[in-house]
């Protein structure tokens, strides 16, 4: 039994809208990750390195290639400190 031609228009709209939303979601994820693909299966080591890279470079996805950390890194610690009176 053939498919009636009237079904092609709604089915085409459904396919196009899934494609538009999927492409938009992928584009939004890449924009929030500075143009890089999203990370999957991030373990404790990866999160620690991501926090370190953020403290070094100031961006969530940036990585530093300098062998010596900048001097601000010495006082830019993850650990909370309290004021000394």
From TrEMBL:
Its localization reads: Mitochondrion inner membrane
What membrane topology does the UniProt entry give? Single-pass membrane protein
Residue ranges spanning the membrane: these are: 7-28
Asked whether the UniProt record includes Membrane among its keywords, one would answer yes
InterPro entries, per the entry: NADH_Ub_cplx-1_asu_su-1 (IPR017384)
Any Pfam family the entry gives: MWFE
Transport in keyword set = yes
Q: What is its main location?
A: mitochondrion
Which keywords does UniProt give here? Answer: Electron transport, Membrane, Mitochondrion, Mitochondrion inner membrane, Respiratory chain, Transmembrane, Transmembrane helix, Transport
Q: What cellular component GO annotations does this protein have?
A: mitochondrial inner membrane
Purpose of the protein: Accessory subunit of the mitochondrial membrane respiratory chain NADH dehydrogenase (Complex I), that is believed not to be involved in catalysis. Complex I functions in the transfer of electrons from NADH to the respiratory chain. The immediate electron acceptor for the enzyme is believed to be ubiquinone.
What's the family? Belongs to the complex I NDUFA1 subunit family.
Name under which the protein is recorded:
NADH dehydrogenase [ubiquinone] 1 alpha subcomplex subunit 1
What is the species of this protein?
Meira miltonrushii
